[in-house]
Amino acid sequence: MTHEQFEVLSNQAVAACAVVYFLAFLAHMAQWAVGRRVSVEERTLATAGGPETTEQVAAYPDDDAEPVMRARRIGVALTVVAAAAHLLAVVARGLAADPERVPWGNMYEFTLTGTLVVTVLYLVLYRRYRLGWLSPVVTGFVLVTLMIDVLALYEPVVPLQDSLQSPWLVIHVIAAIIATGAFTIGGMCSLLYLVKERWESRRPAGAPLGGGYLARLPSLAVLDRVAYRTHAFGFPIWTFAALITGPIWAHYAWGRAWGWDPKEVWAFITWVVYAAYLHARATSGWKGRSAALIALVGLATLWFNFIGINFFFGSGSQHSYALELVASVTTV
After folding, report:
1. CB 254 within 8 A of CB 319
2. Which of 150, 223, 259, 328 stands 20 to 30 A from 10 (CA)?
3. Distance between CA 332 and CA 322 in Å, rounded?
4. Cα separation of 218 and 328, whole Å?
5. 3-state SS of 106-168?
6. What CA–CA distance (Å, rounded) separates 145 from 116?
7. Collapsing DSSP states into helix, strand and coil, what is residue 184?
């Protein structure tokens, strides 16, 4: 196949995976829509009349009713198919360049690969943490982000400019992508924690829980724990990407390890926020609402660093090639 054919294949694979993600989203929504409504008495009986344990609450969202199980299996299967088409789009994008290169040389490609990592991490953690409750959030997020990526960030395939012709592109960016995926999933859990906490605080005492989405989410303790573990996984990877490989690559590309470039500054700000999140949990026992708020602040700085820097600072950043791979944009 020619490079032009690989580019067409990548674009077609993006469209195909978006369609399958949409079908997966519908299946996961159906999983919750057809789920049996469980009364407070039934739930109390399921826990033998005693206080609910973390394991019992974590298992609660995955109802055993056959329609729910069928919809869940279909949703997960469709998500796997969508991830396979997504992977094909990423690989074909790299093969479309002349010469072939890694497929994360601009914002479009970074977003395309980053959303794939979100999906893959979700599928890897699905069984371990029984993440059926996160399925509609992940598939909906990936679908919307891909739509924005294609409509607003798409760039034709072009060769990498000289400053990106380095093995550090592979090491630095792939670490940043993995960390971004982990932080994004952790941020979803933190957001769900805040939404469910507010819902519980406003629900009248003794009122039936019902069978809605918020009622069937895991307990606040489980949401908090999953958020913490995904953030703890992503933080050392982000440290490696932002504070180790980034400065090394900058030294080879620009002759200095640190230059107060806006993207460098915001990458460090993101690191500080997540370091504060983990430090507060480890030393001060911060959990729950306070930790969730810090995590969302970190997620906001992360995505601003990714998108906002390019649009608000433009050519004032030496990382402006992340928006356009044109040699005249960069100061290198």
Report:
1. no
2. 328
3. 13
4. 51
5. CHHHHHHHHHHHHHHHHHHHHHHHCHHHHHHHHHHHHHHHHHHHHHHCCCCCCCCCHHHCCHH
6. 11
7. helix
**Average pLDDT over every residue of 140-145:** 96
Nearest to 102 by CA among 168, 193, 24: 168
Asked whether the predicted pLDDT for residue 75 surpasses 90, the reply is yes
Cα separation, 161 vs 321, in Å, equals 9
Cα 127 to chain centroid distance, Å, stands at 18
Judge residue 279's burial from the number of C-beta atoms within 10 Å of its C-beta, 0-12 exposed, 13-18 middle, 19 or more buried.
exposed
Q: How far apart are CA 120 and CA 115, in angstroms?
A: 9
Closest CA to 233 of 130, 146, 145, 122: 122
Count of the separate structural domains present in the chain: 1
In this prediction the pTM is 0.84
CB 186 within 8 A of CB 230: yes
Range(s) of the domain holding residue 127: 3-329
pLDDT in tens, 85-135: 999 999 999 999 888 888 888 889 989 999 999 999 999 999 888 888 999
Q: Token match 């356009």: residue?
A: 324
CA nearest neighbour of 60 among 220, 193, 218: 218
Burial (0-12, 13-18, 19+ Cβ within 10 Å), 206: exposed
Helix (H), strand (E) counts: the chain = 12, 0
Confidence (pLDDT) at 99: 83
Cis peptide before 156 (omega within 30 of 0): no
Per the model's pLDDT, the better-predicted residue between 287 and 13 turns out to be 13
CA–CA distance, 232 with 226 (Å, rounded to integer)? 10
Give CA 161 to chain center in angstroms: 28
What tokens does 327 get? 């040699």
pLDDT of residue 331: 32
Burial 163-188 (b: 16+ CB within 10 A, else e): bbeeebbebbbbbbbbbbbbbbbbbb
